[in-house]
Amino acid sequence: MKALIIFKQFFEDIRRQKLRTFLTTFGIIWGTTAIIILVAFGEGIFQHNKKQFLGLGEGLVIMWPGQTSMEYQGLPKKRWIRFVDEDIDMLKTEVPGIIRSSPEYSAYTQITYGRKTISQNIIGVYPEFSVVRNLIPEAGGRFINDIDFEYRKRTCFIGTDVRRDLFGEGYNPVGKHIIIRGAPFLVVGVMKDKDQNSSYRGRDKRHIWIASSTYKTMFSRNHPNNIIYQVANPDKSKLVEKEVFKYFGQKYKFNPEDEQALFIWDTNDSFKQFAPFFQGFKIFLGIIGIFTLIVGGIGTANIMFVVVKERSKEIGLKMALGATSGHIMSQIIVESLLMTAIGGSVGYFLAKGLAAIFPYFGFEEYIGNPVISTEHVLITISIIGLIGFLAGLFPARRATKLNPVEALRL
């Protein structure tokens, strides 16, 4: 019954003071919209950059042979390390935590289709290379498979820029033959366009991949330029790296502590450094939104002080008739919470609307799209609830301190 009375009183005040109510809730609306949309943009930028970063590969580690810098077991320093295919196969067997690996043989050569000739990077790899490096074929195509590798087939998988340069934008070259170093190769797939903001041999869209067994036959090469591998758990990539140094140290006779013997780019470590920056950026944007919301809360508190003053005679009468301090406080606090709840709800739907129409502006390529997560909405609701409670608490405490006799005289 008390709750019904409070609600009736609240909506009666809204009916009588429409402008005041609107101006009060507008601060909450704007603050809620600000905090949700700012954090959503921060999350969107993070997800966009994460997608571009992982375009290179997830759980990926790239390793190049180096030169020893320490004497070891009577052997001199400054010895060059040279990988062989056996190393790639043994990595998965000897080093726990590695789930996929592949060599990379690389060279620039001429590629011809019809009257068009370009110079492009040809890379010889294992079939599982596509999984490690996120090379997804367009519909109707595929990557190099085990049969291509086993029988040294002349098949190739090309990037989108190579397709454009040789065949034209949007053309489907699957089933066509191109000439690589004087030999015909069947195009079996085109890489699906992907976001990528890092690389170690240029963007993937500029490359052509063939089976490493075919590459070795064509170019008479037995030592890959580098090795890539994928770890099962990115959080343990440093432990895996130590085991890699230990394995190669035993095989090639160098000190496992010699960091110059192998050059390793652990993209997992790079991502760990990159993630906290964006987490801090989201927190910064959230703080800006919170301050905006606090300003709205202060406005609500001021209005509740005005409400208490206007109702002084009513409050004094209730206290004279036996109303407790708890009853008086609850009425003021509930009205404050209702006001902030209305403003917060409108602000939430306004933020959702802004997030929904933003993709139509065409900025996704540069900053991504805002992402409103449930976690951030729950945090915002908690902040709004706290602000609404505090905005009503202090005016409510003042109301309970009114002298009933003096209040009735006002």
How would you sum up this structure in a few lines?
The chain is an alpha+beta fold and about 400 residues long. It is built from 14 helices and nine strands. About 35% of the residues are buried.
Question: Overview of this structure, please?
Answer:
- The chain is α+β, with helices and mostly antiparallel strands and 410 residues long.
- The protein folds into 2 domains: 2-53 and 272-409, no CATH class; 60-267, no CATH class.
- The protein is 55% helix and 16% strand.
- It is built from 14 helices and 9 strands.
- It has helices at 2-16, 18-54, 85-94, 129-132, 146-150, 160-166, 212-219, 237-252, 267-310, 312-320, 325-357, 364-367, 374-400, 404-409, and strands spanning 60-65, 98-113, 116-125, 155-158, 177-180, 183-190, 207-211, 226-231, 262-266.
- Strands 2-3-7-4-6-5 form a 6-stranded mixed β-barrel.
- Helix 2 (18-54) packs across helix 11 (325-357), helix 2 packs antiparallel against helix 13 (374-400) and helix 9 runs parallel beside helix 13 (374-400).
- The longest helix has 44 residues, at 267-310.
- The chain is elongated, with a radius of gyration of 33 Å.
**Mean pLDDT score, rounded?**
82
Q: What is the CA-based Rg, rounded?
A: 33 Å
* Portion in helices: 40-55%
What strand line-up does the widest sheet have? 2-3-7-4-6-5
Number of self-contained structural domains: 2
- Taken from the alpha-carbon principal axes, the silhouette is elongated
Fraction in beta strands: 15-25%
